[in-house]
Amino acid sequence: MQPFGGGGYRPSIRRFHVGDYVYLQQTAPTTLDVTVGRIILRVREVLPSGVLLLEGRDSVVWKDHVHNCAPCHLPNVDGTMEPSLAIVRAGLRCMLCGSAGQAARMLVCDRCSRGWHMSCLNPPINVIPAGQWVCPRCTLEG
């Protein structure tokens, strides 16, 4: 921190960029609760207001201000998304049939985030693919 007129100190501003890993600092709701652990998330977007859109391994997006985040400098952070943890957002409709039902049997494209029922695809997919999955539309667009 650097002093400025009047003997006060200028607060340091944390700057984060898309792709950075951060700790989301959480506090316990009351002093009786056990201290809440730190969560490591990846910066997905930095908004002009100082709010960060953060994404976890389960592809859930969090919003929090930069003041509640700290840089994570761990060299061994695994940045891959864990498909088994992914949650299909409520109301996501299948691109083929238009139904929002059967969320447990819906694949979400890793490029466009659109939903596709496994049974609606041609040919149908019976097993959730390991790793990233790209929908037929994005595959054609290359």
TrEMBL record:
Pfam families: PHD (PF00628). The keyword Protein transport does not apply. Keywords: Metal-binding, Zinc, Zinc-finger. It comes from the Eukaryota. SUPFAM superfamilies: FYVE/PHD zinc finger (SSF57903). SMART domains: PHD (SM00249). InterPro entries: PHRF1/Atg35, Zinc_finger_PHD-type_CS, Znf_FYVE_PHD, Znf_PHD, Znf_PHD-finger, Znf_RING/FYVE/PHD. Signal peptide: none annotated. This is PHD-type domain-containing protein.
